[in-house]
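Predict structure. Chain length: 313.
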Amino acid sequence: MSSCESVRLFLEKSRHLLILCHSNADPDALGCALSIKRYYSKKDVSIRCDGISRSASLLLHELDESLGVLSVAPDAILVLDTSSPALLEGCRDLLAGTDNLAIIDHHATTAFDACVAYRRCATSNAELVWEVLGKPRDTVIRTALIAGIVTDTGHLRYATRETFATLSEMVGDDINFQDIYTMFREEVSYSQRIALFKALQRMRVVRAGSYIVVKTSIGSFESFIARNILNLGADVAIIVNDKKGQRIVGRAGTRAIEQGVDLSAIMHEVGLEFDGDGGGHPPAAGAKNVSDFKSATDRVLDTVVTTLRGKRK
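Prediction complete.
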């Protein structure tokens, strides 16, 4: 069964709820989890994920919330913002033996077999959770969900009319939008700067008509590096990491997206072709655990370049 109402009923019936997020959980995933945990504060609820991102850590600290610990084994499991069990990484084994599983996910593809789910394409998972919870007025919940929307849309660069409509429902006199932006503002660390310089030294630049595609390799901070390469003028950045489960990360700018580049579809297809996992969103996606890392990376690059050349006006 797939509907907002079915997931809401699932949550209301649960007594000991375990919420799972993808590894290195971002503010969208963690914000959704914290919102559900707070909304059902009278229940036994715990959040688990195989690590959280730096920005998600800032959100957790700012909201003064905790992940919680279940008092007994869970009688229900909810997976958030995750299109494949493989993306749970170290928490994947927690799904073993469960037959009471629900999904809330805004990705276009899924590899889960759940008894109930609420799935639809949206710019953030927070927009779906906002509906499932019935649009609550609790300040902390709305702050967490707004933070998820802001970060998952690239600070609203990829926001749609529907995104802004949802935000207009969430904001109020008790929430300062500027505070949410400031929450994620942090100085670039020495390690990040060194990683960026190394990535720039290793980069390969490919021209596709008037578009620029950059491919490079690094052992950490892939998203940070991809974002900065786009800021330098690239239309698409492809970052490969062969140290952490052979991961391919892609980011696309507005021009590339308008010309037909959909990194979510590309990474999903590459993941299937090379026996791994892939997916995400049109401007930001990734693939991992592929059988032939070099061939998979070349396929991503070739598909991006071919798409740009074929769509070029």
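Summary: The domain at 190-311 is CATH 3.10.310.40 (Diaminopimelate Epimerase; Chain A, domain 1).
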